[in-house]
Amino acid sequence: MTTPEHLDVVIVGAGLSGVGAAYRLRTECPGKSVAILEARDTMGGTWDLFRYPGIRSDSDMFTLGYPFKPWREAKSIADGPSILTYIRDTAAQFGIDRLVRYRTKVVAADFSTGTARWTLTLSERDDDGAVTERTITCGFLYSCAGYYDYDQGHDPVLPGIDSFRGEVVRPQFWPDDLDYAGKRVVVVGSGATAVTLVPAMAETAAHVTMLQRSPTWIGVVPGRDKLADKVRELLPAGAAHRLIRTKNILFGLAFYQFCRRWPTAARKVLTKLSTKALADPDTVREHFTPTYDPWDQRLCAIPDADLFRALKRGRASVVTDHIDTFTPGGVRLRSGRELHADVVVTATGLRLLAFGGITPSVDGRRVELSEQFIWRGAMITGLPNFAVCVGYTNASWTLRADLTSRLVCRVVDHMDRHGYASVVPTPDRPLTRRPLLDLASGYIQRAIDAFPRQGDRGPWRVRQNYVLDAVSTLRGDLSRQLVGTSRAVITGAPADAGRAWSG
């Protein structure tokens, strides 16, 4: 019987997070064998999969980019193809591309407490499309597959959609051959995807209408950071990147805290900025003033006010209403108004999916994720030698992703230095259960109960504060945490079952 291949660390997902994780493991744990398993044919994750018009970052690239790879392009809010090139260039520069195994999907993962190893069942697809299964083992499993279902989006009931004679398109599966030039387009939705699509499609469509049930908070941001441009003229690339990154982190954190602590004032600020950009107070009042407070849901950024510019030029419009039914020629609303359309784009959101669809088990028994707690936003009770990458909801995903990858490196190094074969977070006293992601957004509320929970204190809380997280993740002396009382315990096994690492 052939012994399965064994690796020290397996990373699931070759997107922005997975490439960053591999870089950290290669540089901070250089003796470890590492592989990235990617179910698709190419690298890039979200930035390769999503190809709808205008796709772009909703965070500045100085924080969405890697801290070890300065962003050199002119635009601070970058388009999808530029981000994809950046990821692939990073992978090639540091040899990470050689670690990726494409067309390899993890279909099962079981941890053995006896051997302190994960056994991964892989589904591998060859160039001809033939699929085979095999198993490998690893000492540590790190999921960098995000928390979206990339195979299926959220499909709400759209009454009468089958009667519509035009073309219905989902942004997640944008057809390469779609021709909407000179056609009437209705985009159903009001989130980040919708506000990106509308101005992009309005460049060539006859008219684009954004149909929303309720308004979303919009943040007008500059496409280029003029201060960053000046800093890059004066300083070397590395120093400039660090300075700009720090500036943007602090500004973003300060604005988030402002919104959460003084929501009434934040509403006034955002409304004033939108009114200034659109120059139409009535439209702002009707279509861009939500009932919820800023950052109850994630803000939608529009660089250089492109959505508002499309509205002012008459190339696009916004309608706030509910769908009564689709008709052969468009959409009839509850108000009785009908929107004529040749193309309907259903930008109705994504579905959440924990760990890329992997259902982990321990000693053959499935671990119910909804019953577990997450420690330092990364490791999960009941799952030894396992971490998951979950980015910030109030800032760039990569900020927390990079912290989590560096934490994984510290954990792996700590296990080696103390002779631990496995580690698992365990609270020292009962925790109050809270949702993992504290946002009111529909796509989160629909599926968050299937995810691990956060606690009510210390390292069991998933904070939205990069500065505090950086201190606790990178500066904490783990050797000093081996004694005393604290809020988390990571137990070594089987090398020294009598010692505990308190976090």
UniProtKB/TrEMBL annotation:
<dbReference type="InterPro" id="IPR036188">
    <property type="entry name" value="FAD/NAD-bd_sf"/>
</dbReference>
<keyword id="KW-0274">FAD</keyword>
<keyword id="KW-0560">Oxidoreductase</keyword>
<keyword id="KW-0503">Monooxygenase</keyword>
<comment type="similarity">
    <text>Belongs to the FAD-binding monooxygenase family.</text>
</comment>
<dbReference type="GO" id="GO:0050660">
    <property type="term" value="F:flavin adenine dinucleotide binding"/>
</dbReference>
<keyword id="KW-0285">Flavoprotein</keyword>
<keyword id="KW-0521">NADP</keyword>
<dbReference type="InterPro" id="IPR020946">
    <property type="entry name" value="Flavin_mOase-like"/>
</dbReference>
<dbReference type="Pfam" id="PF13450">
    <property type="entry name" value="NAD_binding_8"/>
</dbReference>
<dbReference type="GO" id="GO:0004499">
    <property type="term" value="F:N,N-dimethylaniline monooxygenase activity"/>
</dbReference>
<dbReference type="InterPro" id="IPR051820">
    <property type="entry name" value="FAD-binding_MO"/>
</dbReference>
<dbReference type="GO" id="GO:0050661">
    <property type="term" value="F:NADP binding"/>
</dbReference>
<dbReference type="Pfam" id="PF00743">
    <property type="entry name" value="FMO-like"/>
</dbReference>
<protein>
    <submittedName>
        <fullName>Cation diffusion facilitator CzcD-associated flavoprotein CzcO</fullName>
    </submittedName>
</protein>
